Amino acid sequence: xxxxxxxxxxxxxxxxxxxxxxxxxxxxxxxxxxxxxxxxxxxxxxxxxxxxxxxxxxxxxxxxxxxxxxxxxxxxxxxxxxxxxxxxxxxxxxxxxxxxxxxxxxxxxxxxxxxxxxxxxxxxxxxxxxxxxxxxxxxxxxxxxxxxxxxxxxxxxxxxxxxxxxxxxxxxxxxxxxxxxxxxxxxxxxxxxxxxxxxxxxxxxxxxxxxxxxxxxxxxxxxxxxxxxxxxxxxxxxxxxxxxxxxxxxxxxxxxxxxxxxxxxxxxxxxxxxxxxxxxxxxxxxxxxxxxxxxxxxxxxxxxxxxxxxxxxxxxxxxxxxxxxxxxxxxxxxxxxxxxxxxxxxxxxxxxxxxxxxxxxxxxxxxxxxxxxxxxxx
Length: 378
Prior knowledge:
The protein is of the alpha/beta class. It has 2 domains: 4-146 and 281-371, FAD/NAD(P)-binding domain; 156-277, 3-Layer(bba) Sandwich (FAD/NAD(P)-binding domain), CATH 3.50.50.60. Helices cover 21% and strands 23% of the residues. It contains 9 helices and 17 strands. Strands 1, 2, 3, 4, 5, 6 and 15 form a 7-stranded mixed beta sheet that branches. A 5-stranded parallel beta sheet has the order 7-14-8-9-10, covered by helices on one side. Helix 5 (183-194) links the parallel strand 8 and strand 9. The protein starts with a strand and ends in a 17-residue tail after the last helix.
Protein backbone atom coordinates (compact mmCIF):
# COMPACT_ATOMS: atom_id res chain seq x y z
CA UNK A 1 0.00 0.00 0.00
CA UNK A 2 1.37 3.40 -0.97
CA UNK A 3 2.36 5.65 1.91
CA UNK A 4 1.61 9.33 1.42
CA UNK A 5 4.31 11.70 2.70
CA UNK A 6 3.36 14.85 4.62
CA UNK A 7 5.21 17.38 6.70
CA UNK A 8 2.36 17.59 9.22
CA UNK A 9 -0.69 15.46 9.95
CA UNK A 10 -3.37 17.04 12.13
CA UNK A 11 -5.62 14.48 13.81
CA UNK A 12 -9.07 15.97 14.33
CA UNK A 13 -11.06 18.60 12.45
CA UNK A 14 -12.74 20.37 15.32
CA UNK A 15 -11.90 23.75 16.82
CA UNK A 16 -8.27 22.84 17.56
CA UNK A 17 -7.63 21.03 14.29
CA UNK A 18 -9.10 23.72 12.06
CA UNK A 19 -7.35 26.45 14.05
CA UNK A 20 -4.00 24.69 13.72
CA UNK A 21 -4.60 24.23 9.99
CA UNK A 22 -5.11 27.97 9.52
CA UNK A 23 -1.82 28.77 11.27
CA UNK A 24 0.05 26.26 9.08
CA UNK A 25 -1.54 27.94 6.05
CA UNK A 26 -0.27 31.32 7.24
CA UNK A 27 3.20 29.83 7.64
CA UNK A 28 3.12 28.68 4.02
CA UNK A 29 3.34 24.98 4.88
CA UNK A 30 1.70 23.09 2.02
CA UNK A 31 2.22 19.42 2.75
CA UNK A 32 -0.22 18.92 5.60
CA UNK A 33 -3.60 17.29 6.04
CA UNK A 34 -6.45 17.17 8.56
CA UNK A 35 -7.84 13.73 9.35
CA UNK A 36 -11.26 13.20 10.90
CA UNK A 37 -13.31 10.05 11.23
CA UNK A 38 -16.47 12.03 10.47
CA UNK A 39 -16.37 15.61 9.19
CA UNK A 40 -15.46 19.12 10.28
CA UNK A 41 -17.08 20.01 13.59
CA UNK A 42 -18.76 16.61 13.98
CA UNK A 43 -18.50 16.65 17.78
CA UNK A 44 -20.31 19.99 17.93
CA UNK A 45 -23.01 18.61 15.64
CA UNK A 46 -23.83 16.00 18.28
CA UNK A 47 -24.47 18.43 21.11
CA UNK A 48 -28.00 18.36 22.55
CA UNK A 49 -30.08 20.86 20.57
CA UNK A 50 -30.47 23.20 23.55
CA UNK A 51 -26.80 23.27 24.56
CA UNK A 52 -24.99 26.52 23.82
CA UNK A 53 -21.53 27.96 24.29
CA UNK A 54 -20.96 29.26 27.81
CA UNK A 55 -18.40 31.74 26.50
CA UNK A 56 -20.03 34.70 24.73
CA UNK A 57 -19.23 35.63 21.14
CA UNK A 58 -18.91 39.28 20.18
CA UNK A 59 -17.56 40.90 16.97
CA UNK A 60 -14.85 42.93 18.69
CA UNK A 61 -12.04 42.35 16.15
CA UNK A 62 -12.02 45.98 15.03
CA UNK A 63 -11.17 46.99 18.60
CA UNK A 64 -8.21 44.63 18.86
CA UNK A 65 -10.06 41.94 20.82
CA UNK A 66 -10.62 38.63 19.06
CA UNK A 67 -14.04 37.02 19.50
CA UNK A 68 -13.67 34.59 22.46
CA UNK A 69 -14.91 31.66 20.39
CA UNK A 70 -12.91 32.41 17.22
CA UNK A 71 -10.21 29.94 16.24
CA UNK A 72 -8.60 32.06 13.50
CA UNK A 73 -7.58 35.66 12.98
CA UNK A 74 -10.09 37.99 11.29
CA UNK A 75 -12.99 35.62 11.95
CA UNK A 76 -15.87 35.89 14.41
CA UNK A 77 -18.65 33.37 15.12
CA UNK A 78 -20.76 36.26 16.42
CA UNK A 79 -20.48 38.06 13.09
CA UNK A 80 -20.93 35.04 10.84
CA UNK A 81 -23.65 33.36 12.91
CA UNK A 82 -25.27 36.43 14.49
CA UNK A 83 -25.35 34.55 17.79
CA UNK A 84 -23.84 35.46 21.14
CA UNK A 85 -24.02 31.90 22.55
CA UNK A 86 -24.04 29.61 19.49
CA UNK A 87 -25.37 26.06 19.49
CA UNK A 88 -23.16 23.15 18.54
CA UNK A 89 -24.62 22.95 15.04
CA UNK A 90 -24.13 26.68 14.53
CA UNK A 91 -20.51 26.52 15.65
CA UNK A 92 -19.85 23.57 13.33
CA UNK A 93 -21.12 25.78 10.51
CA UNK A 94 -18.58 28.46 11.53
CA UNK A 95 -15.76 25.89 11.53
CA UNK A 96 -16.73 24.68 8.06
CA UNK A 97 -16.76 28.24 6.73
CA UNK A 98 -13.25 28.85 8.13
CA UNK A 99 -11.96 25.61 6.62
CA UNK A 100 -13.47 26.47 3.25
CA UNK A 101 -12.12 30.02 3.28
CA UNK A 102 -8.56 28.88 4.00
CA UNK A 103 -8.92 25.83 1.72
CA UNK A 104 -7.73 23.43 4.38
CA UNK A 105 -6.89 19.94 3.10
CA UNK A 106 -9.23 17.45 4.74
CA UNK A 107 -9.57 13.68 4.61
CA UNK A 108 -13.02 13.11 6.11
CA UNK A 109 -14.26 9.62 6.95
CA UNK A 110 -10.74 8.65 8.00
CA UNK A 111 -10.39 7.04 11.39
CA UNK A 112 -6.94 7.13 12.97
CA UNK A 113 -6.21 3.75 14.51
CA UNK A 114 -2.69 4.32 15.80
CA UNK A 115 0.34 6.58 15.56
CA UNK A 116 3.70 4.82 15.29
CA UNK A 117 7.02 6.67 15.64
CA UNK A 118 9.51 5.50 13.01
CA UNK A 119 12.55 3.71 14.34
CA UNK A 120 14.99 6.14 12.70
CA UNK A 121 13.31 9.09 14.42
CA UNK A 122 12.40 10.74 11.12
CA UNK A 123 8.67 10.95 11.69
CA UNK A 124 5.56 8.86 12.13
CA UNK A 125 3.39 6.32 10.42
CA UNK A 126 -0.25 7.17 11.03
CA UNK A 127 -2.35 4.04 10.62
CA UNK A 128 -5.86 4.90 9.42
CA UNK A 129 -8.97 3.19 8.11
CA UNK A 130 -7.99 4.47 4.65
CA UNK A 131 -4.39 3.26 4.72
CA UNK A 132 -1.08 4.38 6.20
CA UNK A 133 0.13 7.96 6.10
CA UNK A 134 3.69 9.03 6.70
CA UNK A 135 4.43 12.39 8.28
CA UNK A 136 7.36 14.16 9.86
CA UNK A 137 5.15 15.73 12.54
CA UNK A 138 1.79 14.87 14.10
CA UNK A 139 -0.47 17.34 15.86
CA UNK A 140 -3.03 15.54 18.02
CA UNK A 141 -6.13 17.75 17.99
CA UNK A 142 -8.82 15.08 18.27
CA UNK A 143 -11.93 15.99 20.23
CA UNK A 144 -13.30 14.60 23.47
CA UNK A 145 -17.08 14.60 23.01
CA UNK A 146 -17.07 11.18 21.31
CA UNK A 147 -15.52 9.42 24.33
CA UNK A 148 -18.09 9.72 27.16
CA UNK A 149 -17.27 8.58 30.67
CA UNK A 150 -20.14 6.10 30.79
CA UNK A 151 -18.70 3.44 33.11
CA UNK A 152 -17.93 5.49 36.21
CA UNK A 153 -19.62 3.07 38.62
CA UNK A 154 -21.48 -0.29 38.59
CA UNK A 155 -24.79 0.09 36.79
CA UNK A 156 -23.74 3.20 34.89
CA UNK A 157 -24.79 1.34 31.75
CA UNK A 158 -28.38 1.65 32.98
CA UNK A 159 -28.09 5.42 32.82
CA UNK A 160 -28.10 7.73 29.81
CA UNK A 161 -25.01 9.87 29.19
CA UNK A 162 -25.83 13.47 28.31
CA UNK A 163 -23.92 13.08 25.03
CA UNK A 164 -26.55 10.56 23.94
CA UNK A 165 -29.32 13.15 24.23
CA UNK A 166 -30.37 14.76 20.95
CA UNK A 167 -32.77 17.16 22.66
CA UNK A 168 -33.87 17.39 26.28
CA UNK A 169 -37.47 17.26 25.08
CA UNK A 170 -37.02 13.56 24.40
CA UNK A 171 -36.35 12.76 28.08
CA UNK A 172 -39.41 11.12 29.62
CA UNK A 173 -40.61 11.39 33.21
CA UNK A 174 -41.50 14.21 35.57
CA UNK A 175 -38.63 13.71 38.00
CA UNK A 176 -35.06 13.38 36.68
CA UNK A 177 -31.83 12.53 38.51
CA UNK A 178 -28.53 13.85 37.14
CA UNK A 179 -25.17 12.43 38.21
CA UNK A 180 -22.53 15.16 37.98
CA UNK A 181 -22.83 18.86 38.68
CA UNK A 182 -20.30 20.59 36.49
CA UNK A 183 -21.23 22.52 33.32
CA UNK A 184 -22.98 19.73 31.42
CA UNK A 185 -24.91 18.55 34.48
CA UNK A 186 -26.18 22.00 35.42
CA UNK A 187 -26.95 22.80 31.78
CA UNK A 188 -29.09 19.65 31.61
CA UNK A 189 -30.81 20.53 34.88
CA UNK A 190 -31.69 24.01 33.64
CA UNK A 191 -33.19 22.80 30.36
CA UNK A 192 -35.14 19.99 32.05
CA UNK A 193 -36.43 22.42 34.67
CA UNK A 194 -37.55 24.78 31.91
CA UNK A 195 -39.58 21.86 30.56
CA UNK A 196 -41.42 21.66 33.89
CA UNK A 197 -39.57 18.66 35.32
CA UNK A 198 -38.28 18.28 38.87
CA UNK A 199 -34.53 17.75 38.76
CA UNK A 200 -32.09 16.37 41.34
CA UNK A 201 -28.40 17.03 40.72
CA UNK A 202 -26.02 14.78 42.64
CA UNK A 203 -22.39 15.81 42.88
CA UNK A 204 -19.52 14.81 45.11
CA UNK A 205 -17.93 18.26 45.33
CA UNK A 206 -20.85 20.62 44.83
CA UNK A 207 -18.99 22.72 42.31
CA UNK A 208 -21.80 25.30 42.30
CA UNK A 209 -20.67 26.37 45.79
CA UNK A 210 -17.22 27.48 44.65
CA UNK A 211 -16.04 30.84 43.33
CA UNK A 212 -12.91 31.40 41.24
CA UNK A 213 -11.78 33.78 38.52
CA UNK A 214 -10.81 30.75 36.42
CA UNK A 215 -13.97 29.21 34.87
CA UNK A 216 -11.94 26.07 34.12
CA UNK A 217 -12.44 25.00 37.73
CA UNK A 218 -15.91 26.36 38.61
CA UNK A 219 -19.20 27.05 36.89
CA UNK A 220 -19.04 29.88 34.36
CA UNK A 221 -20.87 33.14 35.14
CA UNK A 222 -23.27 32.37 32.28
CA UNK A 223 -24.23 29.06 33.89
CA UNK A 224 -24.38 30.50 37.41
CA UNK A 225 -26.77 33.20 36.20
CA UNK A 226 -29.02 30.70 34.43
CA UNK A 227 -28.99 28.43 37.47
CA UNK A 228 -30.05 31.29 39.72
CA UNK A 229 -32.91 32.21 37.40
CA UNK A 230 -34.05 28.59 37.02
CA UNK A 231 -33.87 28.06 40.78
CA UNK A 232 -36.59 30.60 41.39
CA UNK A 233 -39.17 27.96 40.42
CA UNK A 234 -37.68 25.56 43.01
CA UNK A 235 -37.70 22.64 40.57
CA UNK A 236 -33.91 22.12 40.74
CA UNK A 237 -32.56 20.40 43.86
CA UNK A 238 -28.78 20.54 44.27
CA UNK A 239 -27.27 17.76 46.39
CA UNK A 240 -23.60 18.28 47.21
CA UNK A 241 -21.34 15.92 49.11
CA UNK A 242 -23.18 13.02 47.48
CA UNK A 243 -21.30 10.38 45.48
CA UNK A 244 -23.18 7.81 43.40
CA UNK A 245 -21.59 4.39 43.84
CA UNK A 246 -24.00 2.21 41.85
CA UNK A 247 -27.34 2.07 40.07
CA UNK A 248 -29.59 -0.96 40.01
CA UNK A 249 -32.77 -1.86 38.16
CA UNK A 250 -35.71 -2.30 40.56
CA UNK A 251 -39.45 -2.86 40.03
CA UNK A 252 -40.08 0.86 40.49
CA UNK A 253 -37.47 1.72 37.88
CA UNK A 254 -33.94 2.44 39.09
CA UNK A 255 -32.32 2.66 42.52
CA UNK A 256 -29.44 5.09 42.97
CA UNK A 257 -27.09 4.18 45.81
CA UNK A 258 -24.91 6.92 47.25
CA UNK A 259 -22.35 7.64 49.95
CA UNK A 260 -22.12 10.96 51.70
CA UNK A 261 -19.09 12.79 53.06
CA UNK A 262 -16.32 10.59 54.48
CA UNK A 263 -17.80 7.63 52.56
CA UNK A 264 -20.66 7.17 55.00
CA UNK A 265 -23.71 5.28 53.64
CA UNK A 266 -26.05 7.75 52.03
CA UNK A 267 -29.61 7.82 50.86
CA UNK A 268 -30.99 5.39 48.29
CA UNK A 269 -32.94 7.28 45.66
CA UNK A 270 -35.56 5.72 43.39
CA UNK A 271 -36.51 7.02 39.97
CA UNK A 272 -38.86 5.75 37.29
CA UNK A 273 -36.61 6.75 34.39
CA UNK A 274 -32.89 6.22 33.70
CA UNK A 275 -30.65 8.73 35.48
CA UNK A 276 -28.68 11.16 33.34
CA UNK A 277 -24.89 10.86 33.43
CA UNK A 278 -23.06 14.17 33.27
CA UNK A 279 -19.74 12.59 34.13
CA UNK A 280 -17.65 14.12 31.38
CA UNK A 281 -15.43 12.54 28.75
CA UNK A 282 -12.34 10.36 28.73
CA UNK A 283 -10.69 12.24 25.88
CA UNK A 284 -9.13 10.97 22.69
CA UNK A 285 -5.62 10.80 24.13
CA UNK A 286 -6.36 7.27 25.29
CA UNK A 287 -5.61 6.20 21.69
CA UNK A 288 -2.01 7.46 21.92
CA UNK A 289 -1.53 7.17 25.66
CA UNK A 290 1.83 5.28 25.48
CA UNK A 291 3.38 8.14 23.48
CA UNK A 292 3.01 10.57 26.39
CA UNK A 293 4.40 10.79 29.89
CA UNK A 294 1.64 11.39 32.41
CA UNK A 295 1.43 13.51 35.53
CA UNK A 296 0.11 11.79 38.65
CA UNK A 297 -3.00 13.98 38.35
CA UNK A 298 -3.76 12.44 34.97
CA UNK A 299 -2.70 15.00 32.36
CA UNK A 300 -0.01 14.58 29.67
CA UNK A 301 3.40 16.15 30.22
CA UNK A 302 4.44 18.59 27.49
CA UNK A 303 7.45 20.69 26.61
CA UNK A 304 7.22 24.48 26.44
CA UNK A 305 6.13 24.02 22.81
CA UNK A 306 3.30 21.56 23.68
CA UNK A 307 5.37 18.67 22.34
CA UNK A 308 5.15 15.29 24.02
CA UNK A 309 8.11 14.95 26.38
CA UNK A 310 8.29 11.24 25.54
CA UNK A 311 7.85 11.45 21.77
CA UNK A 312 9.59 14.26 19.86
CA UNK A 313 7.58 15.45 16.87
CA UNK A 314 4.19 14.69 18.46
CA UNK A 315 2.36 17.87 19.49
CA UNK A 316 -0.89 18.40 21.39
CA UNK A 317 -3.52 21.04 20.62
CA UNK A 318 -6.91 21.58 22.21
CA UNK A 319 -8.60 21.28 25.61
CA UNK A 320 -6.24 18.58 26.93
CA UNK A 321 -3.29 21.00 26.94
CA UNK A 322 -2.17 21.73 30.47
CA UNK A 323 0.95 23.10 32.11
CA UNK A 324 0.81 22.46 35.85
CA UNK A 325 -2.11 24.46 37.29
CA UNK A 326 -2.69 26.28 33.99
CA UNK A 327 -5.55 24.60 32.12
CA UNK A 328 -6.27 25.41 28.46
CA UNK A 329 -9.69 23.77 28.27
CA UNK A 330 -11.63 26.61 26.60
CA UNK A 331 -11.22 27.79 23.00
CA UNK A 332 -10.05 31.26 23.99
CA UNK A 333 -7.34 29.56 26.04
CA UNK A 334 -6.03 26.76 23.83
CA UNK A 335 -6.06 28.88 20.66
CA UNK A 336 -3.23 30.90 22.27
CA UNK A 337 -1.00 27.87 21.81
CA UNK A 338 -1.62 27.22 18.09
CA UNK A 339 1.16 29.56 17.00
CA UNK A 340 3.51 28.15 19.66
CA UNK A 341 3.16 24.69 18.10
CA UNK A 342 3.33 26.03 14.54
CA UNK A 343 6.46 28.06 15.34
CA UNK A 344 8.25 24.99 16.73
CA UNK A 345 7.37 22.96 13.63
CA UNK A 346 8.15 25.79 11.24
CA UNK A 347 11.62 26.31 12.68
CA UNK A 348 12.43 22.62 12.22
CA UNK A 349 11.15 22.74 8.63
CA UNK A 350 13.26 25.82 7.91
CA UNK A 351 10.24 28.06 7.35
CA UNK A 352 10.29 31.83 7.94
CA UNK A 353 8.17 32.16 11.08
CA UNK A 354 8.12 35.98 11.20
CA UNK A 355 4.57 35.87 9.82
CA UNK A 356 3.50 34.68 13.26
CA UNK A 357 4.24 38.12 14.72
CA UNK A 358 0.65 39.04 13.94
CA UNK A 359 -0.45 36.25 16.26
CA UNK A 360 1.59 37.80 19.06
CA UNK A 361 -0.05 41.16 18.38
CA UNK A 362 -3.50 39.59 18.61
CA UNK A 363 -2.98 37.58 21.79
CA UNK A 364 -2.71 34.25 20.00
CA UNK A 365 0.93 33.43 20.69
CA UNK A 366 1.17 32.76 24.41
CA UNK A 367 4.73 31.53 24.92
CA UNK A 368 5.32 32.98 28.38
CA UNK A 369 3.15 31.21 30.93
CA UNK A 370 4.49 33.16 33.91
CA UNK A 371 1.71 35.73 33.44
CA UNK A 372 -1.05 33.12 33.68
CA UNK A 373 -3.02 32.06 36.71
CA UNK A 374 -3.55 35.53 38.19
CA UNK A 375 -6.66 35.89 40.35
CA UNK A 376 -9.11 38.76 39.95
CA UNK A 377 -9.03 41.25 42.85
CA UNK A 378 -12.62 42.42 42.46
